Every structure is written in structure tokens, then in C-alpha cells.
Known about the structure:
two-stranded antiparallel sheet, 16% strand
Amino acid sequence: MKLLAIDDFITRLHDLIRDLGIEADVLLLGTSRSGQIIEGLKMAHMPRQAVFLGFPHPNEPLGELIMESIVQEAAIRQSPKNQADWYLVPVWDVDGARINQSWWSHTISIARMIDHWYRPAPSQQVEWTFPLHDQDIRFDHPLPETEAVRRLLDLARPELLVSLHNGVFPGAYALMSPHGSRLAPKIREVFRTHGLNPLRNRPIPYVETLAEGVFGLPYAHLEIDYLRRLNQPDWPIDYDNGGASFDYVDASCLSLVMELPLFEWIEGTMPVFPGSRSDLIARQIAWWESLEQDLTNAFADPDLLQSDHPLLSSPRYFYRRRQSDLATIKHRLADAATHDDPPEKTDLQSYMATLLTVSTQYSQLLRGGGPDMPMARCSRLELDTLANAHLRTVKARTVISTGRDIIRLLLDDI
């Protein structure tokens, strides 16, 4: 699979809107921290007030394909008798997406992804800096990109909010607001219909399971409560960002976060790990401990610790949260760590996800001016070897048709 560079993607959407004869206005929602335009598209005469957010995270490009299917759906549903508007934000984190685009505008691979990956700390993510006040935790300095979409949400007052994310490893899932739970079994069936296996285990420890592959939204207050329960007396609660778009909108709005995978398992293959589930968990925790120690050593350099290089925000975030993150990971893996049976695919996928996180933090550290750590090459090589043997990219038409059918399901049920 190969996706479009950002400028090509925007041009493609404009051409598609013109070719389909859709009535649409281009909006200037705001500008990014680097001065890039944040563009919106307003489509009048639609059946429901809706907002669709592309690139809420800069390293999640599958929204390009789904945004095209939303435009195609608009061509079907636009009618003079309708009184509502759709608002599309094709590239919300435009600065970050431009940093990442070199890994998806060529043939996508794990190695290329690691080498060009960029994802900032939550306090620098456009999706996670909406105003928030929860007991002693207050966040009231949204990023310019967040403020732009906040103004849009105030204007649109949507009945439906869809945020187009994606995962990397096999397992499709969605996160949705509680009053949409009746749709959860239908969304699960959409995944299955298009050959995507729904994610079995909760992707976030504090969300509710609504159906296989469909979970509750990770509201900010749920994460904060979860961290409070895990908190040790001598540890501060590590929460320094704000809320998300689904925290901000009115509770009556049906919100959905779509998380389709970039990769799927190659049929008939199964990574072999010489040991038990508990052995694999121990190795997984060892990777986290190695990253923690390497970050501690790297950020002992005061110049690096204070650097404003954007690539360092995430490694520095992991460094500052190293104690609570390790406690969270051990808590999440505690049950599997007691089993001596052979690892299952879900265990191996979790292990590969750890390798990706570790590898991308090392990559951002190095490209941001930090030291080249020996373990960086080890984690990258191990993950790349596993991925080349057992994973392939999901077909673009699968992403498009799955996204389209979920959007249709949501629109028809509001």
C-alpha cells in the first residue's frame, strides 16, 4: 500500500468534490504552529449535522482513504430538501502529518515507518489539548490547531462526530459514546464482512467493552481516575494534557473513533517464540525497562532535556512518565504473566506493539539530536524481521469499504 503526500491528498479531495458535483465551500479554520493553513470543507444540504476529523494524530494516514469515501457518500446524500451541514477537516495536524508523510507516500513498511515516525507527546497533540478541569487537574491552553477545531465544533454543534484514526497491527476496532452502544454488534459485523478481525482485547485498560472490537470512548476523566487508582503515594499523577474532541462536544453528540489496522496477518503464519506466555511478558517488560534506562541516561544531558525540538517531545514524555508507565504496563500484563502455556497471537501482537513503541521513541530521540542507543538497532531489527515474515498491509479497498459502511451505519441510525 502507498498513500498520498499531504498536498496531493488535498488536491485529490478537491478534484473529487468537483468531479462529483458536490456543493462545497472551502473554509480557513485557522493556522498551525508553523503557519500552515488548516482547511475545512463545508457541505450544505446534508441530512445530519456532522463533523469528520482527518489526521487527529499525525502518524495515522488511513483517514485519507476514508475521507474520500465520506466525500463520495456526500454526493449521494446531498439534497436541497436537507437543512444540515457536514464539515470535513481533511488534515487536522498538518505540521505533524507533513513530517510523517515520507513513510506512507512510498510503499509502506515497518522499517520505513520507524525511520520517519513522528508522534508528539499528548500535551502537543491536537486531539488531546481541549480545555479540561477534573478536580485538581486543569488544562486551559489549547494548541492553535485544537482551538481551530474547537471553534468549528461550537459553530457546527454536530449530531455526529467521527475522528479518523488507525492502528498499526491486526485487529480492527472502534471507540464510541455510550448512547451509541446499540450499534456495537453491527459495527463488529461490518469488520467481519470486510475480512477484518475485530480486536478481542480492550486496547485501553479503562474503557468498556460494548462488543468484540467495539469499546467505550477513553474520556479524559476515565484515564485520570485510572491513574489515581494506580498512583503510589510518592508519585504525582502523570496527566499534563487536556481532553479530546469527544470530551468537548455535547453529550448528545454521537462520537466515534475509527481504528482500522494498517497491517494484517499473513495467513498460515504464526511467529514462534521459544518459551511460554510468561517468558514473552518478561521480555516485553525488559524492553520497557531498557527504554526507561536509556531515556534516563539520554536526558541526563540538560541541553537535551530542555531542547524544543519537536521530535523530542514524545521521548521526553516517556522519560518523565517512566515510573507510572511501567506500573501501568505491569498491571495490564499481570494476568498473562502467570501463564506457562505457549503464547497466543494476541500476546505476540502485544509484544510487537511494544517493539514499535520502543523503536519509534529511539528513532525520534536520535533524529531530535539525542544519542544513538545500541538497543535501538536491536528493537528495530527484531520488529522488522517479525513484520516481514508475518504481516502484510491491508488492501486499500478494504479500508475504504469498511469505513464507508460504518459511516453509513452511523448516519442512518442518528
